[in-house]
């Protein structure tokens, strides 16, 4: 087996990527402190073709070298917007037909492996601050609270890792519905 070269990967141009149909998913970052985490979320959004990334509250925005260090150009390919208030954004997204899924550990949460996306439904995944998680008022307003099953001693994942896990899970289940 031989690794593929960068040329053999046939990467699309940013313009072609922007014009491509995206999966029915937006990512909402609720007061994320680490600019490296923000950049990583952009890369995940690009890799799995999310529609948009919302950067809320104190979450840093491009252009910034620490975001770019991990985004590797994905801030140019992924649509994004800064919104001052996460709760107001969640209300707007719900009014626009999105099902809001807070990624958090909470009473009566749905384990990610038990979550089945509804075909044709638009989703917004809300991921929270590295210390405090998703704000309680946002959790309370969410349609679903998704929890990633964990079996170690830490019971938490870095936000960029959690984003990759939930987006891949969503995409794999959505693709499975189309088969």
UniProtKB/TrEMBL annotation:
Domain of life assignment: Bacteria
Which GO terms fall under biological process for this protein?
methylation; RNA processing
The protein's UniProt keywords, in alphabetical order, are: Methyltransferase, Transferase
Q: Which PANTHER family match?
A: 23S RRNA (GUANOSINE-2'-O-)-METHYLTRANSFERASE RLMB
Report domain tRNA/rRNA methyltransferase SpoU type positions: 25-167
What the entry lists under SUPFAM superfamilies is as follows: alpha/beta knot (SSF75217)
The keyword Nucleus belongs to this UniProt entry's keyword annotation: no
Q: What is this protein called?
A: TrmH family RNA methyltransferase
Q: Which GO terms describe its cellular component?
A: cytosol
Q: Which organism is it from?
A: Pontibacter diazotrophicus
**Single annotated GO MF:** RNA methyltransferase activity
